Amino acid sequence: MKVLGIETSCDETSAAVVEDGFKILSNVIATQIPFHAPWNGVVPEIASRKHTEWIYTVTKEAIEKANLKIENIDAVAVTSRPGLLGSLLVGLSFAKAFSWARNIPYIAVDHMLAHLYAPMLVQNIDQRPEYPFLGLLVSGGHTIICRADNFDDITILGTTIDDAAGEAFDKVAKYYNFGYPGGLVIDKMARNGDSDAFRFPMPSLHKGDHRYDVSYSGIKNAVINQLETFKKKNNYTNNDIAASFQKTAIEILLRALFNAAEDTGLSTIVAGGGVAANSLLRERLTEQKHLCCFFPPLDLCGDNAAMIAGLGYQYLARGENSPLNVIAQARVSGFKKKYP
Length: 340
Ligand code: KG4
Ligand code: ZN
Known about the structure:
Bound molecules: 5'-O-[(R)-(carboxyoxy)(hydroxy)phosphoryl]adenosine, zinc ion
Number of helices: 11
Shape: globular
Helix content: 25-40%
Strand order of the largest sheet: 3-2-1-4-5
Largest sheet: 5 strands, mixed
Structural class: alpha/beta
Order of helices and strands: EEEHHEHEHEEEHHHHHEHEH
């Protein structure tokens, strides 16, 4: 079954064709980064306008790159939640129209479940993680530690109680004018910086109900408020700030994740989302010899439609599809906790 995937939840307009849930035939990702960079963050109105302008050509290109014709597409999968509402609506409406016009089924899927599915997109079955495993979902809008029993069956163990991991990278980069998107820029700068140059606090969240939760508002404020101290300190560099921030930001994630691994006894970890591209996170997880860690390849860490098509296939293969009255949802309950 050849599934056309459509992803427009944030600032990438993406369309892909995936065969039988695992084989990527094409994966076109049109990034809007240059249009949002002047604002150092995603501007929702610009995002939905660009999706509207690009969705048709990006989809056409995905079908062509897969060496297919429109008649060869068997079903459509699309992100319907969570994300920017206006952006989601563009992809969702397009997918509904496509499926209605072609008289083929469509399935609306969850963007975060799709990030968790991304490492499954490999041909060799031995290279796919087996359920159950611990999921680490780290993106610009979410930070989730969960137990995954199937592609559609996750139990959320921990979330952020304030900012998401990627959001913290983005906000620190924005404050210091490091560039956009912040995660990628800080990751690169950190390679030439001293991660012990500055010490940042770990949140005091590791006890009781919050053993698997994370918080980034403390470190974000510390990094930003210590600017004057940084400036006074001799021979400090921006790379030192980036490296010191990144080190603690990743430690915050790992502490909660290792608590969850210890308590659940799960030793397979699957990471997904834009922050899963972070080189320090990948390095620190790979060195844990008692854990078996799976990461998507770098081009499948960020937003892409291949993961949407792959996940969508799994529902379709079970005989499920979505009615035309499915609505876009900006938020999903449970994906973020309130403190205490
Ligand atoms: O999954 P994603 O592409 O979009 C959302 O669903 O939010 O994640 C985007 C986030 C941004 O916050 C970006 O700064 C972060 O992922 N990111 C990184 C890296 N590459 C992207 N964060 C840390 N290190 C990276 N190498
Ligand atoms: Zn995402």
